């Protein structure tokens, strides 16, 4: 929500706006504040008082997912097994990409409307880099793999799953299968001594 306490009616309106936006994003509809206001049964001014731009509203819709990923990243960093930590983080990230339509839109945006979005995206980048560095130092991942490689690889899997289609459960199963194949290729070859 916002950092200041809202009156009950304002909080109710804020929640209604975000809920309508969530539905629209899940349906693949581009957010337009006038459309959200109409669907929420609110005045356009009410929506604009809460969200100055469609991007701010979209980022608000994505915030719970980003926060959950950041929290999972903190748990992964506490895992003492570098491979398991990296694998778990990538799996959770991919699951979020497949199940939350707002995530790809927000993470692909060249700029952020909200400071919280920037903070969360930076946290995820830092976590992914640290997990990969730990895996590389433990010699459980290919030494030539860089953090910059992970984002396009994960996006590639998410795109392949979207093209593959199917039910939500089918998409998750396909994503896990594709990720397992990718992870098999990322593992460091056992040394022959």
Main attributes?
193 residues; mainly alpha; 9 helices; 0% strand; DNA-binding; TetR/AcrR family transcriptional regulator; transcription; HTH_TetR; TetR_SbtR-like_C
Description:
This is TetR/AcrR family transcriptional regulator. InterPro entries: Homeodomain-like_sf, HTH-type_TetR-like_transc_reg, HTH_TetR, Tet_transcr_reg_TetR-rel_C_sf, TetR_SbtR-like_C. Residues 10-69 form the HTH tetR-type domain. This protein is an all-alpha fold. The chain contains nine helices and no strands. The chain has helices at residues 8-26, 33-40, 44-50, 54-78, 82-99, 101-108, 115-137, 147-164, 168-186. Helix 1 crosses helix 2 and helix 5 (82-99) crosses helix 6 (101-108). The protein is elongated. It starts with 7 loop residues before the first helix and ends in a 7-residue tail after the last helix.
- The whole-angstrom Rg is 19 Å
Largest sheet: none
Unreliable residue stretches: none
Q: How much strand?
A: under 5%
- Which secondary-structure class do the elements indicate? mainly alpha
| Number of H- or I-type helical stretches | 9
* Number of E strands: 0
The shape, in one word, is elongated
Range of helix content: over 70%
Written as H for each helix and E for each strand, in order along the chain, the element string is HHHHHHHHH
How much is the average pLDDT? 93
From the N-terminal CA to the C-terminal CA, the straight-line distance is 57 Å
Domain HTH tetR-type: 10-69
Keywords: DNA-binding, Transcription, Transcription regulation
DNA-binding region: 32-51
Protein name: TetR/AcrR family transcriptional regulator
